[in-house]
C-alpha cells in the first residue's frame, strides 16, 4: 500500500518536474467554492489532468488544478473519501506537496457551523479536530523514513501559525472541526450529538490531510469557511450549490487572510 502511494507521488512529481522546477515552502489546499483564490498566487497552472496518475475532482467548486510557483503550491481542489477514493489518494496531494518542498500547509474547507455564534460567511481558524471518518490515512505498513508509526497529534494546528493568523485578522473565530464521511449531510440529531462532542464546525475533508501533513513534519494551519448553519440550526434544506456560492462570497476576507498569512510565514520561517 505504502509502495503504491510513494510510487504515485513519484510518478506525479516526475510529470510536474517536466513543467517547472519550483520548490515552494508553503502549500495551500482550497476547499469547495474557493478554487479561484489560486489566482492570487504566482505560478504556472497545471491542470490535475496533466499530472500523471492524479485523479480529477468530481465535486462542483473544485476546479482541479495545481498552481505551482516559487513561493507557493496551491491545490485548487481536493479528493474526498466519499468520492470513493482510498485514503492513499485522499492524502496524495499532501505527500506530493511535501515532495515538492512544502514545509507549511494551509488547509481550507467549506463547513457547516454548529456553534451558535457561527453564521454563513464566517471564517473559523481550526484549533483542533475530531476524526469521525472511521479511517486514518496512515493505516497500513509504515515507511519510517517518512514519519513515525505513531505520530503525535496533540498540536495538529501549529500554535505559531494560529497566532500569525489572529494578528492578521483579530476577529477570526477559532473552533474544533469534525470530519464525517458524507456525502449525505447530517441529520439534526447528529448535529446535536456532535455539539456535545465539542465540534464547532462540521465537514467532509481536511482531517486526513492534516494528519498526513503532521506525520510528514509539516506545520499546519486549518481555516473553515462557514457556508451554512449545520442541519436543523438554519432554515431549509442544505444544498451543495449554496455551499459553493457562500464559499465564493467569503473569498474577499479569505483572500486577505491567505495572502497575508503566506507572506507572514515566509518572513517568520
Ligand atoms: O472540500 P470541502 O471540505 O471544502 O467541501 C465541503 C465538504 C463537501 O465536499 C462539500 C459539501 O457541500 O463541501
Ligand atoms: N458535513 C458537512 N459538510 C459541509 N460542508 C459544507 N457545509 C457542510 C455541512 O453542513 N456538513
From TrEMBL:
UniProt entry tagged with the keyword Transferase: yes
EC category: transferase
Pfam families: PNP_UDP_1
A GO CC term attached to the entry: cytoplasm
EC number: 2.4.2.1
Domain Nucleoside phosphorylase: 26-262
Keywords: Glycosyltransferase, Transferase
GO biological process terms, semicolon-separated: nucleoside metabolic process
Biochemical pathway: Purine metabolism; purine nucleoside salvage
Keyword Hydrolase listed: no
Binding site for a purine D-ribonucleoside: 186, 228
Binding site for phosphate: 32, 62, 78-80, 110, 205
Lineage: superkingdom: Bacteria
GO molecular function, a single term: purine-nucleoside phosphorylase activity
Function: The purine nucleoside phosphorylases catalyze the phosphorolytic breakdown of the N-glycosidic bond in the beta-(deoxy)ribonucleoside molecules, with the formation of the corresponding free purine bases and pentose-1-phosphate.
Family affiliation: Belongs to the PNP/MTAP phosphorylase family.
Protein name: Purine nucleoside phosphorylase
